[in-house]
Amino acid sequence: MRATMAARQHTSPKRLVEPGPDADQIESLFCAAATAPDHGRLVPWRFVIVPADQRARLAEAFALALIDRDPGATLVQIEAARLKAWRAPWIALAIARLRDDERDADAVPAAERLVSLGAALQNLLLAAHSMGFGSGLTSGRAMASTRLRGLFGVQPQEQAVCFVNVGTVVGRRPVSPRPAPARFVSCLS
């Protein structure tokens, strides 16, 4: 497992091509995600797969989200926003449920819910890597747009966090150096 973790790297969706994962592999990816720590067994996250026949709707949401936040966006910028929907062979949106409803007393705080989603994402990424795929997470300002929230049915108590992109890597890069534990570990004194 350590070798798998050491070899896994972020792969830009621009470098992901067909084939992507098949139905059985996708099921395995989500089974890996389901092993994430989950205080209270809330499953405070969900994934929405964007199948190929729905990419045009995602492309339009990206374009309109850009126009909403920047009415002066050029046609080139708008088209670049649209193209993001077509990059990886397999795409899913990761959504965190930060509370259960408006009256929720935060029995499980939002931070713990986000950590659970982060663990689910890492498990999914590691599973994709172990299958021989490249993968990466993408986000950006469109994540908060009403266009994207509406398309994916993101509820008021939820947050669209990132897209998961999976496919076959073209032009794999060398693994980036990892930080030494001394850089991020200290001891209470």
TrEMBL record:
Region (Disordered): 1-21
Comment on bound cofactor: Binds 1 FMN per subunit.
InterPro entries reported for this sequence: NAD(P)H_nitroreductase (IPR052530), Nitroreductase (IPR029479), Nitroreductase-like (IPR000415), YdjA-like (IPR026021)
Requisite cofactors: FMN
Pfam families: Nitroreductase
Nitroreductase domain sequence ranges: 14-167
Zinc listed as a keyword: no
EC number: 1.-.-.-
Keywords on record: Flavoprotein, FMN, NAD, NADP, Oxidoreductase
Tree of life domain: Bacteria
GO MF annotations, alphabetized: oxidoreductase activity
Residues engaged in binding FMN: H39, L137, T138, S139
PANTHER family: NAD(P)H NITROREDUCTASE YDJA-RELATED
Family named by the database record: Belongs to the nitroreductase family.
Record-given protein name: Putative NAD(P)H nitroreductase
